[in-house]
Specification:
This protein is of the alpha+beta class. About 35% of the residues lie in helices and about 15% in strands. The protein has a four-stranded mixed beta sheet with strand order 3-2-1-4, with helices on one face. Helix 1 crosses helix 3. It is extended and about 70 Å long. The relative contact order is 0.09.
């Protein structure tokens, strides 16, 4: 069974070295171990690094275990180059990407409408028509976005939206009638 996470060390890992020494050194609670000549505290230094990089290391470890369990996939074979001529690489499997589309005038403005797009490589497969979010609080908008993502996951197997969000101004809202657009036009 795995060792429990030490909450004190986890919080200490987020501090700068000087702050950690001040808080946990001889003038603090004295858990900093200055065993080496630089006074870094070898054990503490190792623990702080471990807790800072814990999530990434665990993710890599899980991925490697899974690869060993399933064997090396066939798409990771090496392809030798013959006579310096480039070889054609095999086509990647069809992978879908979901892009969140938000209609608002600037980053801090409330969301006017929410839509989504599904892309396969450089080809747009689906454009989900946007829905007005006027009058909805942030948590309702978030719930709606999650329900859209669940539907896209069922249909296309996407588990998240891409990191880049497509933001369009309210004037580009295609929903008719749109109360804000009619107010702007008048």
């Amino acid at each position: 069974m795995a060792r429990r996470v030490n909450a004190k060390c986890q919080q200490c890992a987020m501090l700068a070295v000087e702050e950690a020494i001040a808080l946990h050194g001889p003038t603090g609670d004295n858990c900093w171990n200055p065993a080496n000549e630089q006074g870094w505290g070898y054990d503490c230094h190792r623990r702080r690094s471990h807790y800072r990089h814990r999530e990434d290391n665990n993710r890599t470890r899980r991925r490697l275990r899974k690869a060993v369990r399933e064997g090396t996939p066939s798409d990771q074979r090496t392809f030798p180059v013959q006579d310096g001529e480039p070889m054609a690489l095999p086509a990647p499997p069809p992978v879908y990407a979901a892009v969140l589309v938000l209609y608002r005038n600037h980053k801090d403005a409330p969301v006017h409408a929410v839509g989504a797009e599904i892309w396969q490589g450089d080809r747009q497969v689906l454009a989900l028509s946007p829905m007005h979010c006027m009058g909805m609080r942030g948590n309702l908008v978030t719930d709606y976005i999650q329900s859209v993502l669940e539907q896209l996951h069922q249909q296309f197997g996407v588990s998240r939206f891409e990191d880049v969000i497509k933001q369009l101004p309210v004037e580009a809202c295609p929903i008719q009638p749109c109360p804000l657009k009619t107010r702007i036009e008048n």
